[in-house]
Amino acid sequence: MKILAFGASTSKSSINQQFAHFAAHQFEGDVNMIDLNDFEMPVFSVDKEKEDGFPDEAHELHEIIEHSDFLVISMTEHNGSYSAAFKNTLDWCSRLNNSVFHEKPMLLISTSPGKLGAKFSLEAALNRFPRHTANILGHFSLPSFGDNFKDGIINKELAKEFNDLIENVKETLAKIQ
């Protein structure tokens, strides 16, 4: 299984990148960790699209997603929503082809330093991503990353909830593949 994973952040020290890496490695397969910094695009506008067409990075990301079997995305949160960089990436990719996620099975997760675990960004993604053909098999929010994660989830209740989710997603993946 080809697993594509990334944190929806451009921070060089992204905790969501760390969490996506951890989550993706709970599954059997080849994990392709990408960095949104490698897909930097100009700020989306209809005028920019009309004048210059679509950035090569949008085409490249579409192709990577299309050739993956399973997606693990960890949502960061800036002021209660997606990061501007991720939103811009989503805008460009959805204009290129509304089927951004190509109906690939997805684990959607989030974390933050705070007690809410980027839940507003996660909720926005849960609402928005299916409109772009995401097949979300499960979701999880990890609060207080610094207190609850050290090479894995250290809070026993959260670890159990996460591990149960992973097992459920594995069972679903086995049925659909």
Automatic annotation (TrEMBL):
| Any one GO MF annotation of this record | oxidoreductase activity
Q: Gene Ontology cellular component?
A: cytosol
Q: Which positions fall inside the NADPH-dependent FMN reductase-like domain?
A: 1-139
UniProt xrefs under InterPro entries:
Flavoprotein-like_sf, FMN_Rdtase-like_dom, NAD(P)H-dep_reductase
Q: Which PANTHER family match?
A: CHROMATE REDUCTASE, NAD(P)H-DEPENDENT FMN REDUCTASE LOT6
Protein name listed in UniProt: NADPH-dependent FMN reductase
Organism per entry: Fluviicola taffensis (strain DSM 16823 / NCIMB 13979 / RW262)
Lineage, opening ranks: Bacteria, Pseudomonadati, Bacteroidota, Flavobacteriia, Flavobacteriales
